[in-house]
Amino acid sequence: MVRYDPVFAIGALHWVPEVDHSEYIVTMTIDDEKFHKIMLPKTSRFNDRIMEAYERLCFVTHEEMNEISIWVLGSVSEEAWTKTYTIAVGCIRDLIPLYFLRFKWELYFLDKDGSVFCFDFEDQHMKKVTTTEGCFKLAYGEYTLHVNSLVSWRT
Questions:
Q1: Edge-to-edge strand order for the sheet containing 135-138?
Q2: What percentage of the chain reaches a pLDDT higher than 70?
Q3: Please, how many CA atoms are within 13 Å of residue 107, restricted to the half-sphere of its CB?
Q4: Distance CA 107, CA 100 (A)
Q5: What is the DSSP letter of 97?
Q6: Contact of 21 with 44, CB cutoff 8 Å
Q7: b/e map of 80-95 (b: 16 or more CB within 10 Å)?
Q8: Of 118, 102, 87, which is closest to residue 51 (Cα–Cα)?
Q9: How far is Cα 69 from Cα 8, in angstroms, rounded to an integer?
Q10: Using an 8 Å Cβ cutoff, are 83 and 41 in contact?
């Protein structure tokens, strides 16, 4: 069974209740422990993800075969998404968003064959990243994947 890990951003824990064709996310605010249903800007598909970037909640979605859009949620109380960026390079239909890099404006993706790709927002360029045993090298060292979450639902 495929499932998404919860994501912590803007003072709340968020998750997508259904893997494919979900129209909303479920949010639990940490300060009052209340649950909210927040509509997504569009119905999520199998390769779409919610992610944390610079303490904001993002919805990374495949709009067309060669287009990925990034939507940002203003706040839990507003429940308003703003489309902030569109990536339109090559055939990116099967790329699964992994995470945003914290010290540079880059978004990493996993391809269906296990390859890792990186989109650099400054250079507007998608590049394949060399990996070794689940890790990959960047200029600053070797890194493993991490999702910003308060809890682990793995047993």
A1: 131-132, 135-138, 141-143
A2: 79
A3: 27
A4: 4
A5: E
A6: yes
A7: ebeeeeebeeeebeeb
A8: 102
A9: 21
A10: yes
- 58 confidence band (pLDDT: 50, 70, 90): very high
Q: What are φ and ψ of residue 13, in 5° steps? A: -100, 130
Identity of residue 79: E
Alpha-carbon dihedral sign for residues 93, 20, 151, 13: positive
Q: Which residues, at least 6 apart from 16, have a Cβ–Cβ distance to it below 8 Å?
A: 4, 22, 25, 26, 44, 49, 50
Tell me the pLDDT band of 13, cut-offs 50, 70 and 90. Answer: very high
Query: Order of strands across the sheet with 96-100?
Result: 96-100, 106-110, 116-120, 125-129
**Whole-number Å distance between alpha carbons of 144 and 137:** 9
Kindly state the tokens that stand for 38: 């927040």
Residues 19-54 pLDDT 10s: 778 899 999 999 999 999 999 999 988 889 999 988
Question: Which residue type does 116 have?
Answer: V
CB 69 within 8 A of CB 3: no
> 4-18, 29-43, 88-102, 103-117: which has the highest mean pLDDT?
29-43
Q: Which pLDDT value is given to residue 12?
A: 93
